[in-house]
Automatic annotation (TrEMBL):
Keywords: Membrane, Signal, Transmembrane, Transmembrane helix
Residue ranges crossing the lipid bilayer per the database entry: 74-96, 128-150, 162-186, 198-219, 239-264, 271-295, 307-328, 340-358, 370-391, 412-429, 435-451
Gene3D superfamilies named among the record's database cross-references: MFS general substrate transporter like domains
UniProt-recorded name of the protein: Molybdate-anion transporter
CDD domains reported in the protein's UniProt record: MFS_MFSD5_like (cd17487)
Highest classification ranks of the organism: Eukaryota, Viridiplantae, Streptophyta, Embryophyta, Tracheophyta
Family matches, as InterPro entries: MFS_trans_sf (IPR036259), MOT2/MFSD5 (IPR008509)
The keyword Membrane appears for this protein: yes
Amino acid sequence: MEAFYMMVFGALASLVAALELTQSSKDRISTSSAFHSFKNSYLLVYSLMMAGDWLQGPYVYYLYSHYGFGKGEIGHLFIAGFGSSMLFGTVVGSLADKRGRKRACVTYCIAYILSCITKHSPQYKVLMLGRVLGGIATSLLFSAFESWLVAEHNKRGFDQQWLSITFAKAIFLGNGLMAILSGLFGNVLVDSLKLGPVAPFDAASCFLAIGMIIILSTWTENYGDPSENKDLVTQFKGAAAAIAAGESEFSLLNILSTCFYALVKSKDEKITLLGAIQSLFEGSMYTFVFLWTPALSPNDEDIPHGFIFATFMLSSMLGSSVASRLLAHQCPRPESYMQTVFMISSVSLLLPVVTNFLVAPSNVKGGSISYSGCIQLIGFCIFEACVGIFWPSIMKMRSQYIPEEARSTIMNFFRIPLNIFVCVALYNVNAFPMTVMFGICSAFLFVASLLQRRLMLIAEIHKSRSQEWLNMEEMDSEAVPLNG
């Protein structure tokens, strides 16, 4: 079966190389040298930040088990991370909008470095503190950097369509190439050099520190709404008002309820739909992260986890390459083609359910990957390719629909239902059969496709009305008064 893994990896690598090397002038957007320099500067920092994140991922569970903690205790540590992101994410998002996105990016580096330092302690409470810090850092990673980029891009007067270039390259490099290189580097540190499971976290701290120095020395500050007469609560309520209609009294309960209420009644339905789509897709994606290993080795089959992870990341790079071509053209727009992407991803995560009924399960313990596992692996690679298309496309749509003054706050708002879902899934991961979990994820992605269609229709209506309004203004300006 080793030949099967190599064949899948080789096919994906060939497709990525072909897409990158055969881009024509039609697939590229003509830009300026100033934008090229700005883009490369951001990509360098973003790649360092993602390297710091990816270096930790494969070794978190391994480190906790190395310290002697059981599955239940490790599960609680993971839940603490997602719970921290849920509880503190919106607050730090509001602070980023008000106090500055550059400061928020520096705060991300500091929080994640401190989280890495806690990994040196085998004390459960210290590790729990590290997970809380990691949850806060994750919220900043997925909001502050993008918010800074969009604001700085607009402040420098670059074309709006050029954003899609930066988004696609950020996913290709940060979520694809850096993930593969980080996995290989971590393997060298732990397995080849025998430096122990804490070594990747120390290396991550170094990358984060280098990135922080570049941010401090080269980035300028930008804000959402820096008005001095707005405190944190007012800033937060403003973001909530952009999502849900009505000015209800602010309370902690409303923090959790507003996101779900917004699905029904919204001041700007496009923002609500975008947030719901993001929560549904990312919730399925993070659940998949916990499910793919037992799905491919239900009978303790011997599978190369590191090589499969690299294959998934290569699939993500393939998706981002496809997205860069799609985003280089005015048509089709992300609102349109993402419907198909969500449907394909829904079908790909339904494969474990289908193979469970159609392929006779093996009762042999150990050995190599089964026939159904091979089918599922191909489906999982397709899903990861959809993930690669999703990230730059959702970033592009967020840059269009989310108001600048509360961008970080709103982006973290919609991580609340995502984190709730992941915490519930983690807590009950052993309570439901794996096929049920995959079925739920597939259903979520199908709903995301329906909501994406609704978003497309609303965007088209808004676009046509705007065009009609412009035509009316032109007619009024060209009208000649009649002589009496």
